[in-house]
Amino acid sequence: MNRCAVPRKVLIVLGTRPECLKLASVCRALGQYPDCVPIVLNSGQHRASVERTLAQLEIGCDIRAEQMAGASLYASIKELRAGIRHAAERVAPDVLLAQGDTATAYAAALASRDLGIAFAHVEAGLRTDHPYRPFPEEHFRRRISRIARLHFAPTLSAVRNLHGEGIDPASVVHAGNTIIDLLRNELEQTPAAPPLPIAASNRVLTFTLHRRENRGAGIRQACNAVRRLLAAHDDLVVVCPLPPHPATRAQLARELADCPRVQLTESIDYPQFIALLRRSALIVTDSGGIQEEAPHLGVPLLLLRQNTERVEETALGGATLLDLRREDLCRAASRMLAAPRPIPLPFTDAAPNGDGRAGRRIAHHLLQLLTTGSSSGHRYRYDNHPRGVAV
Ligand SMILES: CC(=O)N[C@@H]1[C@@H](OP(=O)(O)OP(=O)(O)OC[C@H]2O[C@@H](n3ccc(=O)[nH]c3=O)[C@H](O)[C@@H]2O)O[C@H](CO)[C@@H](O)[C@@H]1O
C-alpha cells in the first residue's frame, strides 16, 4: 500500500459497551499504522459504561461528549448528531467510522452526511426479515447503509444483503466479525474466574434481556418462566447482569427480586462475563453479540426475540429462536438443559463470523481507501476467496 504524505485521521465514534468491545480490535489495528491517527469519541449515549469499557480494554478516549439527556429516541438522535458534528468539525477527520445499529451509529452516519465526510460502517449488512424489527436497530442499520461509503460486512449473508440492496460491491468488504477478534484473544489468555462464586454442583443459566421489544410483557413472561424453571431444577442458579436502560433494569430487578437462586448483578466486565458464559449450561438472552460468541464456547442459547439477523448462527444450531408470545420458555429451556452440550466451533475461515482477524482487515482496507481516495482500488471476487478479502 502507498504511504500517505499526511497522516490520515479516522474519527471512531462509539456510545455503548458493545460498540467498544466490537471496535477494540479496529482501534488497535489502526494504531499500528504510522500514517493513521485514530481519534476515539465517546458520544455520550451510555457515557459511563463506555468510559469503563474503554479503560478495561486499555483504549484511550480522546473526546468525551456529555451524557445525553435523551428524553425520546428522536431527541437522542438529534442530540447525538449535533455532538458528533461538533466534534467532527473540530477534528476534521478524513473518515468517520462507527459500528452496528445503535442511536450513536445512526447519528454518526447522519453527522458524516451533514459534513460531507466519508462514513465507514463496521458490522454492515445484518438484516432481519422485517424492515423495522427489531426496533429501532433494523431501521437504523438500513438507513446507515444508504449513507456509508465503505461497508465492512461480518458474514457472507450480510454481504449478500448489501449486494441485494444495490450497494456497489466495490464498497463492500467481507471482513468477519470483530467480536470474534476479542473473544479469540480472550480465550487465548489465562482464563478469568467467573464474577460470582458458584458451587461445583450447580448448573448455571445466564440470563440477559435488554431489547425494547421485550420490555413489559416479554420480560414479565420470561421471568415467570425462569421461576418455573428454578422450581423444576433444584441444582440450577440464574445469573442476570442488569442492562443500563433504567426502566428495563428496574423491571428485571422487580420481577426477579424474591426469586431464590437468582443473582442479579451489575454489568460484568468482559473477561469475567466470558468466564461466566463458559461455566453456563444454558444462555437465555435477546443479545446480538452473545449469539455470535456462544457457538465458539459450546454453550446452547435460547434467543428471546421474534426474529434474528444472525441467520448463520440459527442455521448452525448455535442459537434457537423462541417467540415468547407463542412458545413456552420453561419447556424449551428444560429440553435444552437435558441435551448434550454442543461442540465449540473453532476459529477458522469457515466459521460464520470469521477467524478473529476482522480488525486487521478493516484497518487495511480503510487505509487503502484513504490512500487511493476510493474503494474501487480493491474489487473482491467473493467466489474466489473464502472470506472475500485479500488479507
Ligand atoms: C439487534 C442487535 O442484535 N444489535 C446488537 C447490539 O448489541 P447487543 O445486543 O449485542 O448488546 P449487549 O447484549 O449489551 O452486548 C453484548 C456484548 O457485551 C458482552 N457483555 C454482556 C453482558 C455483560 O454483563 N458483560 C459483557 O461484557 C457480551 O459478551 C457481548 O460481547 O448493538 C451492537 C452495537 O452496535 C450491535 O453490534 C449488535 O448487532
Task: Explain what this protein looks like in three dimensions.
The protein has helices at about 15-30, 45-55, 75-90, 105-115, 135-145, 155-165, 180-190, 215-230, 245-255, 270-280, 290-295, 310-315, 330-340, 360-370; strands at about 10-15, 35-40, 65, 95-100, 120, 150-155, 170-175, 205-210, 235-240, 260-265, 280-285, 300-305, 320. The protein has about 400 residues and is of the alpha/beta class. Strands 3-2-1-4-5-6-7 form a seven-stranded parallel β-sheet, sandwiched between helices. Strands 10-9-8-11-12-13 form a six-stranded parallel β-sheet, with helices on both faces. Helix 1 (about 15-30) crosses helix 14 (about 360-370), helix 4 packs parallel to helix 5 (about 135-145) and helix 8 (about 215-230) crosses helix 13 (about 330-340). It is globular and about 65 Å long. The ligand CC(=O)N[C@@H]1[C@@H](OP(=O)(O)OP(=O)(O)OC[C@H]2O[C@@H](n3ccc(=O)[nH]c3=O)[C@H](O)[C@@H]2O)O[C@H](CO)[C@@H](O)[C@@H]1O binds near residues 18 and 19. GO terms for molecular function: UDP-N-acetylglucosamine 2-epimerase activity.
Radius of gyration (Å):
21 Å
Strand content is 15-25%
CATH topology (fold) name of the largest domain: Rossmann fold
Count of folded domains: 2
- Tell me the CATH superfamily of the largest domain: Glycogen Phosphorylase B
The tally of strands reads 13
SS summary, helix count:
14
Bound molecules: the ligand CC(=O)N[C@@H]1[C@@H](OP(=O)(O)OP(=O)(O)OC[C@H]2O[C@@H](n3ccc(=O)[nH]c3=O)[C@H](O)[C@@H]2O)O[C@H](CO)[C@@H](O)[C@@H]1O
Low-pLDDT residue spans: 376-391
Strand count, sense and barrel status of the largest sheet are: 7 strands, parallel
Average pLDDT, all residues: 92
Q: Report helical residue fraction.
A: 40-55%
EC number: 5.1.3.14
Enzyme class: isomerase
Keywords: Isomerase
Family: Belongs to the UDP-N-acetylglucosamine 2-epimerase family.
